[in-house]
Amino acid sequence: MKEIEIFTDGACKGNPGPGGYGCILRYLGKSREIKGGEKMTTNNIMEMKAAIVALNELKEPCKVSLTTDSQYLVKGATEWMFNWVKKGWMTASRQPVKNKELWLEVFRLNKEHKITWIWTRGHSGHPENERCDQLANEAILQL
Predict the structure, then answer these.
(1) Distances in Å between the alpha carbon of 72 and those of 43, 61, 106, 119?
(2) Residue 8, Cβ neighbours under 10 Å: how many?
(3) Radius of gyration, alpha carbons of the chain
(4) Quick one: CA torsion of 50, 53, 57, 58, rounded to 10 degrees?
(5) Active site includes 88?
(6) Options 22, 37, 38, 133, the catalytic residue
(7) Which of 19, 36, 37, 47 is the catalytic position?
């Protein structure tokens, strides 16, 4: 099974507002960067979209270490999602899960790949996280 490193970040100017995401995929020492954005979105959506876009680039099941500064994404993918599935995509307070369509895609990708979700503090000098943030902000400017 191929071992891939993925780094992601999302950004938003206003929440909601124009948003962007940036991704770095690294395999065997080679890196590929991806960025994109939406005119009206939220920061959490862009964080999720970054991971989904990057994981969808993989052509076969892989062992992935995915590093993000989004606790929402990491906790959702490793803790909350499994209870949401059991409860029919309802939260503990019996409200519909926000961003359900994106969480369904994360759930599918989480089953397809062996993903280790890694949280890093944002804006703390992590080189790949800083680059992903730069890509996300570039994408916003290109909207």
Answers:
(1) 10, 24, 12, 10
(2) 31
(3) 15
(4) 70
(5) no
(6) 133
(7) 47
Catalytic one among 10, 22, 36, 76?
10
CA 140 to CA 4: how far, in whole Å? 27
Nearest to 63, CA basis, from 8, 22, 101, 26? 26
105 an active-site residue? Answer: no
Q: What are phi and psi of 82, to 5 degrees?
A: -70, -35
Q: Which of 22, 37, 69, 128 is catalytic?
A: 69
The question of whether 29 is a catalytic residue gets the answer no
Question: Known catalytic residue: 133?
Answer: yes
Half-sphere exposure of 59 (CA within 13 A, CB side): 1
Which residue ranges in the chain fall short of pLDDT 70?
none
In this prediction the pTM is 0.96
Active site residue 10: yes
Residue 83: DSSP 8-state: H
In the block, tokens 């395999």 appear at: 27
